[in-house]
Every structure is written in structure tokens, then in C-alpha cells.
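Moderator note: this is an archived Q&A kept for reference. The question asked for a predicted structure of one protein chain; the sequence and the answer are reproduced below.
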Amino acid sequence: MSLAPEDHKVIADLLQKAAAGSLLQSMNTLMQHLFSRNLAWRLRLNPDLVGVHYENRDGQGVSASHVQDLISSIASIGFVETELRSVCVEVPDDHRGDRVREFNRALVAESSSKLAPVDMGNIRYASIVGSHSNQTFRAFRAAVMHHDQKVTIDNRLSVEKVATFDQAWATAIKNGVEWTIIAYSVTEAFEQFVPLAQSAGNTAAQVAAVEHELQLASKVNRSIDAMLKKQGKSTVQYSDVAPEILRSRPPSASALPGIFAFVVKCGGGCDPESFLSKSERHIRAHGQPKRSLGPEMWQALSSEVKGKLQYVHWRHMLLKLAFTGQDKVLSASDVRKALQGGMLAKAAEAEKMSRDMQSILNSANHLTPEVKFATLSEVEVEMAAVILQKKKFTKRETVYEACNDCLQGLGLTSPWVSSASSSQNVSPSKDGAELGFQVGNMVIRKADEVVGTIKKMTADHVDLVLQDFSACRVSSQSFVEGLWRHHVPKAEAVPLPDWSAHAPSVSKDFVFSCVKSVVLLQMREQWMAFTEATALDVFVKPRDVQVSKDFGQGKLCLPVTSPRLDIRSSSSTSPSGSIKAGCIKTSSEDHILYILPMVQFPKDGQGSGQGFVNPTWIMRTTSDRTEANMEVVGKGSEKLTPDYRKIQLPYVKNIRKVSAGQSLLLYRPETGKPEQPEALRPLSKKLRTQ
């Protein structure tokens, strides 16, 4: 079905508004229009007919691990079809649908059999919202392997088993669920429809998974690439892409600056063979893509290293390790350590061995591209864990072992056989420097906190002198396996004399915070008692405040309210535009609390409470009292204490009658014009200007 010109214009306008920030409202209006024009419809679909759109979740598609986890989650809490808001688009049978079909083929191939096989000829639709839920249906229909005994028979997913405890879920697996189907002509004409529809689905907190940090990284990468191509820029700033990324209000928004820095420095672009693309593919298939690493981790991953070499490949090994395993393996301090000093030499060796491994795997013609890719990624993760000595993640001692074991497991010749064999026989005495133990070191056993001093180290054993001066012997292997660690005795506690002189009740910072709290509570009470808010009209660009009814002299009293308070020494200058609220007496010197101006206009589409608008800070000011009709009442001489009590805060009052439609003009003498500048003295002769 082709688009009529009038439909094309309506869709283009609504998509533009959605991209500009009015996401939910615009996309909801657009969906209503599509339904009214038969460009969208509702239909119950067989799960096998629905693949995943290549724009889904910003190009990541679905996570095989998340599909497996979602099955267990639904089994625990139950299935409710009405909670689904599934949306898909038509897929043409001809060459125009090849990209969708190839994307789904690659998803399944990289999933290590965690996703259901896909029949290319069956794909008629591509999901953009509700993709993971549909993949759970497909997994049951294909009897995919799964660990949850509640939903399996002989470790394979079973619809019959589900029917014994959740008939609604079993019915959905067999017959499918209702989908909103978008005509292909819409997505063909407007490439931005799919990502905007998917963002709207995430914003509305539908059953589709929320945007996680890895997806934000992908979205940043694609946004940067599009901006560089369309606008011809050579560089992109955070402010250029942040509004677009944050319009769906992702829960990990605080990590976005670090994610942006990492993508810019280490992403490598949107090519399928770029570092970020390959890391995403591995994590999506074998890692925990929903994991939140946090702002500190992303900042550490993007931190600069001295010199031209920035070890981008090594950073991606760390990234994949951070997203691997059921529990978090890596911390931000681990990453900072991995990018410092002697660790960088090991990082360079790991990068070289990864390239060598890739060459060996590429020469193995009996392996599929997907197996080669997954094998190399797993080895890189293993090498990162070995170098950082993550004993809970790996038992291997060297990167040589990791590479050698992998190649031998695939029946390939390994160039690291001798290196791996020698590393397995390493003794603490031979490699003491690398392991970090020397004679004379104090050590502690992790299991029971036994403390001793190393007296002798051999290939077989380590002799210790314990704290009671008794001697004992333990195996060298226990040190190699990390069962012992260095011990630094705790220093004896040093008493702090007269600590009560610094108790909270006399702490200046604590007292100031309490005073601010008292003032803020009083401000709230003052504002809640203000009943004339509806009689004031606020304008922006230019700013103005007008009254909508008459007020006699002294009848309009506006609270001076702001979340910004500042306390300064009485000898300091007052902040610009501030209003003095009161004085604070301390043992050393007096301080003054100032109320600072605060105006935050809400953005388009934002709900109630997203801005801060107090007409007091918006009305125009003058230094001429004869022009003004409003002034600040209260000299700010109130003595402020941390004890809660009624205090008289300053407020703004009309000093003469104001009529409906009249603007409010506030008298602020400190805003007067500066002193008269030096007079211009004319020269006797005119100077030429050219």
C-alpha cells in the first residue's frame, strides 16, 4: 500500500515533533492516524512469522541471555497477554526484506542455540516492540534447551509442561498474541519511524525491556555516525547527541557522559567489524546485556593513557569481561589498574595474541564464521580475567594457557604449547616477583585469617612463622591459587582528644545545613499560604509578569521562594540578584544567608513538576523606585538558628495599586546603572576612517 501525499505530510510532521522531544504524544497521535488510514492494523500472529527488525533496540536486536532469563521470570510471576504492547512491521517477500532475514539468521547463529532456529521463508513481519516476548514463544515451539526445570522436560522447553500451571501462557505460545502491524510503505518512506517507535515503547515502560547501558552505547554510536554523515562535521560534542538519546528517559542516563566518551574514543564506528559492534554481538549472545556498569566504570573505560597508543582492543576485552558471568567480575578500580603502569605491557601482549589467534582461526576452514567469532571473543574475555587475576572467573594462570587450551579443544595446532606447559609448573620461588610474594612478607590465609611471615619458599612448599612464633609448612600451590594474600597489620588506634568540641551540634557545616532546612520549610509554608497564583500571568521571551485582576496597595504579597540558598561571611559581597534572608551567629564570625534566584522553564512535553517557576524571579526590575510598583519587604535581619521556629522571611509587595493587565516592576536599587563613564573628549581635527 503506497502513501498518499497527505499521509506523507502528516507522518513527516509528527515524526519531526517526536524527534524534537514530544515523543510519546506525537507517536501516539501518529499511531492513531495510521490506524485511521489503514496503514496499521491489529492481528493475532503465529510467533514463527515474526522475526526481529534490524533497527530493534538500536541495532542490537534481542539478547539470547535475556530471552532465557525472561522465560524463568514469566514462569515465576505468570503471563498476562493484556500487558503486551507488541508492534511489528511488514517484511516484503522480495529483495527488500533480505536485510531483515539476514539479520535474523546472524542473531540465531551467534546465540549458541539459545534462540529458536529461523526459517527465512517464514518471516513475514519484523518486531520493534515486544521482541523478547515473541522470542520466548519461538523458543518453546522449537523446544530449545533451558535450565529451568519448571518449564522443561529433559532440559528442553515444553509447551505441555507450561500448560500444567499457566494455560494462558501455553495458549499464547501455540496461537501467538495480537500485534500492531505497520505497513511496509511507512517504514520504507521514513527510516526514523522504527527507532522512534521503539523509543516510545521503552518510555511508556511496556513489556519490552527498558534501555540498558549497552543499548545506550549503540544508540550513541549510531547517532554520532548519522550526525557526521548528514551534517558533514568532523567532530561531535556530547551536547549534540544527548537530547536525542535522553528523550526516552533511560534509567541509566547518569552513565551517558561516560558512555559517550568511550564510544567516541573506542567505538570505531558503525561498521559490523568495528570494535563496538563486535563487543555488542558477543555480549548480546553470551553475556549479560542488561547489566548496569555505572557511570564510574564507563569513565574508567574511557580514561586517557599516556602516549599515542590507547589500547582500544584491550579496553574492549575489559568491556566484554564486565558484561560476562552471572555476577559482576570487574570494578572501576580494576579497569583503572588495567590501564596503568606494568599492566599495559600485559595488555599489549594480550592484543598481539588475540591477533595471532584470529589468524589461526581464520585458517580453519572447517569452522563457521560464527564459531570463529565466538571462540575469539571468549578467549579475549579469558585473557582479561587471567591478567587481572580473577580467580573466581578462571583457573588458568597465563594467557598462554587460555589460548592453548582453546586451540587444542578445537583440534588446531597451538604455537603456545611450551609456554602453557611451563606456566603450569610455576612455583612461588621461581616467579615470586610476578606473584608478589617474597621471604619476609607477612601473609594471611583468606579462609580463616591465619597470619604468618614467610621464612622460606621452594617449588613445593612455603615455610611460615605464625603469630604465636610456631613454625608451619603449607603447599606452594595454595599461594599460586590465591588462597593467601599479603597482610598489613592494622595500626593501633590513636585517640582523638576533645572530640565533642567537633560534634554535630557545634559543627559549622552541620549547623548551616540545618538552618537551610528550616528556611526551606518556612518557604514552603509561605508559598502554600499564597492564594493569588491564578491572578498572575507569566511570560517568557521576553520575561514578564502581569496581573489578571486589580490589587489595592499592599494587597499583593509574593513569596520569595527558591531551592538555592547560599551562606557567606558577613564580610563577603552578596551574590548577584540575591535577597538577604537573615543572619547566623557563630563563635568565629557572623554569616548571612542569601536566597538566590532560580528559574527553570519546563521543556515541551514535560509533565507537572519538571520546572521551577516563581514569578518573583521573573518580573522585570528597576533601580528607580518611582517607576516600580513592587518592592522587597524585610531587611534580612532575622537571626537564624538550626532550631525550627517561625521566622519572618522577606517577601515582595505592591507599593501602589496595580490594575488587570499591568506588568509588575520590582524595585531593586542594586541593579542601578554603574557610575558615569569617562567623558569623550573631541579632537580638534577629524580622523579619517579609511
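Archived answer notes: Residues 508-528 form the longest helix (21 residues).
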